[in-house]
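Q: Hi! First time doing this. I have a protein sequence and I read that you can turn it into a structure. Is that right? Here it is:
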Amino acid sequence: MGDAAERWRERQTGRGIPDHVLRHAPADPWTHDPAHFTPPAEPADTPSHRAARAIAERAAAWTCAGASVLDVGCGGGDAAFGAAWPEPSPVARVVGVDRQADMLAVFAAAARARDLPHGTVHGSWPDAAGDAGRHDVVVCHHVLHNVVDLPPFLAALTGAVRTRGGIGGVVVEMLTEHPLAWLDPLWERFHDVVRPPSATHHDAVAVLREQQGVDPEVLTWTRAARLPHDAAWVTRRLCLPADRVEAVAAALVDLPPRRTDAVTLTWSP
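A: Yes, that's right. Below is the predicted 3D structure, encoded as structure tokens:
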């Protein structure tokens, strides 16, 4: 393992939940509510969506047919459907990969509502890569900070690209730091756990360069401001019981605003 990959691993491992805290968690702190991932009817106009759309348009023109889009860690499919918007769409088919079956149900329902042919693969990446197949566009939004062993994850994204005419590509969206880094002061306050520095998008780019010799296009931008999740959500993330919600709510008032800087990484095999 190279220096960049090891640095990513160390920083991500250091942000795990200590065993003595996790053992007493009253609820799973990691499961996401699929209701929060229903994609909007009109996707936001973002650099990530535009990058994926551009690749899809080139692939569709090359084949005289629509492009295929693979959405890794798809949730409800906002990344994939963003590449297919607006009409007329260059996308002929979308495939979603997710470890939560209920997320895939949201993805499939959204695809049907858009009359868009689709497929789903239940599993974690990169284990599910063989079942996912190869596609013109591979998108992956806000998943990298859930990954500890980054090289095989990124290699599988690259390997999932179908390079017809050298056109296909990968579009990754991530935050500049771990999405839960804003809660670090509360981990120290409630558990006396001091979080190490977060892995950043610079670390991810370094792994790509080190492991694949890939120099991705890097675009930083500001996404729409997001309000902090409610105190009950944060309480569960902190592995605290429900009777601590009021204390968490009071602590949230003292936190600085959440950062809104995002990054789009784009590369081709």
